[in-house]
Each structure stands twice: as C-alpha cells, then as structure tokens.
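4.2 Preliminary Data

To establish feasibility before requesting continued support, the project team ran the inverse folding procedure on a target of 115 residues. The structure was first converted into the token representation described in Section 3, and no sequence information of any kind was made available to the design step. The complete token record follows.
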C-alpha cells in the first residue's frame, strides 16, 4: 500500500501542471513525437522536455527513439490507477451526500408536519 500511495502522489503531482495535462490529453489521440507535442506551447524545448521527464518519471508516459525523433506514448494502466482511486472516493462522497440529502428531506418533512 505505501508503494501505491507513492505512485499516486507522483501521478497527481505530475498532473497538477496544465502543460503536462495537455500533453496527456494530446497523447490520448495516440503516440506523438516530442516536436509534435511541443508545437502548441510557447516555451523552449528544454523546458518542455522537463515536463515530459516528469510525466515519464511518474510512469504516465513512455518514450523511445524512432529514427531521429523521440516518440511518446501514454501509459494507460498508470492513469487507470488514478482513475480507480478517484472513483472510489467519488462513490464514498456520493453516498455521504445521498445520506445528507435524505436527512434534510426528513427534517423538511418533519418541519412541514409540525405546522
């Protein structure tokens, strides 16, 4: 469990940056070269590749040489772990909010009956 916690922390930390989220979004369409991924951003290539390094270190993407380019690919299982964690917590909060809603409805009904 501590290792999974550390992996989730790295995942969410990597996704906390809008540039890195945009890269992940772009890779949802399929593999892309570093140049293709960097094109929409107004930053120097070394700065952009640091973002890719964070995503790769977090296990969210992998990259490999393809000729003279570096091809990046999304690592779906790493994203699924974060999605599963969020889904579990969403279910927990939805259940709590459902109970609160039921309680408030009961209070409202009791208040109406008292009048």
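Position-by-position output of the design step:
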């Amino acid at each position: 469990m501590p290792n999974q916690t550390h992996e989730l922390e790295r995942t969410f930390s990597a996704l906390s940056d809008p540039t890195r989220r945009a890269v992940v979004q772009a890779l949802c369409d399929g593999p892309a070269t570093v140049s293709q991924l960097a094109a929409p951003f107004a930053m120097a290539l070394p700065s952009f590749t640091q973002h890719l390094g964070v995503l790769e270190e977090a296990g969210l993407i992998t990259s490999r040489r393809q000729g003279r380019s570096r091809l990046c690919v999304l690592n779906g299982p790493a994203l699924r772990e974060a999605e599963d964690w969020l889904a579990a917590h969403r279910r927990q909060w939805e259940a709590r909010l459902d109970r609160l809603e039921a309680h408030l409805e009961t209070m409202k009904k009791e208040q109406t009956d008292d009048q």
